[in-house]
Amino acid sequence: MELSNKQITVIFKALCDENRVQIFRLLQNGELCACHLLEDLHLSQPTLSHHMKVLCDSGLVVGRKEGKWMHYSISQEGAKIAMDCLKEITAVNKSECNCCNK
Amino acid sequence: MELSNKQITVIFKALCDENRVQIFRLLQNGELCACHLLEDLHLSQPTLSHHMKVLCDSGLVVGRKEGKWMHYSISQEGAKIAMDCLKEITAVNKSECNCCNK
DNA sequence: AAAACATATTGACATTTTTCTATGCGTATG
DNA sequence: CATACGCATAGAAAAATGTCAATATGTTTT
Predict the structure, then answer these.
(1) Helix axes A45-58, A18-27, angle to 10 degrees
(2) Residuewise pLDDT in 10s, chain A (102 residues)
(3) Which pTM was predicted?
(4) Measured CA angle at A73 (ends A70, A76), to 5 deg
């Protein structure tokens, strides 16, 4: 799994806004449609729509269209990719100091 | 571990900028001082200093002052907290649909 | 077919973030 | 002790992001 720096930022942007974090908390109880999410968030409908796009772009959330409703849920595949990515980017290969002052 | 939505955003802001992701890649080979990081990034010194502050605030990176040098490294404790947080926020408790259209 | 409904898109504005130049502060060195 | 060095801070400009009102799009219902 070789993700670019840009791709990594897209994934973690999902968790860089308080409202989006709150959306995760709401989705933890299962799939919800946008209208239901809207009830619990102090946001306008277009703003929610914008956040859901950011979340879907990250891969951490997936949308499922059913008639005129959009159902959103947390993607376990997306979560696994994010976890692997976080693990990979924070892994340290060596431990000695490489500084100019060594 | 009960982190607020705000605290979560502070952690993951570390990975929302391409330059900061690149800094992680550089630190994966071990501790580096700011002057050395600066050589590999196309950034001014104050801009790097700003990014290092964001990284340290996230807890994913720690700084160690030695004389006039600042040595930065990836924090494994910080990484563990971020991993736990990501796991927790993407966990799903129920799987049935809770939508208004159920 | 028209009306109602759920969501997305557009365009504008406010806020936040990124970036730089200039400067300040602490530490080491001549 | 004066100077140089490494890094942080202040302030300003530019870019990106979050937000909303208005509107568009697609779907269901009457």
Answers:
(1) 80
(2) 689 999 999 999 999 999 999 999 999 999 999 999 999 999 999 999 999 999 999 999 999 999 999 999 999 999 999 999 999 999 998 645 454 433
(3) 0.90
(4) 145
The torsion angle over the Cα atoms of residues B76, B77, B78 and B83, rounded to 10 degrees, is: 90
For B36, the closest of A17, A24, A99 (CB atoms) is: A99
* CATH architecture assignment, domain A5-90: Orthogonal Bundle (1.10)
The beta strand positions in B20-102, using DSSP E, are: 32-33, 61-66, 69-74
Rounded-to-integer distance, Cα B39 and Cα A85, Å: 25
Distance spanning both ends of chain B, measured CA to CA: 34
- Bridge partners (DSSP) listed for residue A64: A71
Q: Which sequence spans correspond to the domains of chain A?
A: 5-90
Q: Which of residues 10-69 of A touch strand C (CB under 7 A)?
A: 33-35, 38, 45-46, 48-50, 52-53, 63, 68-69
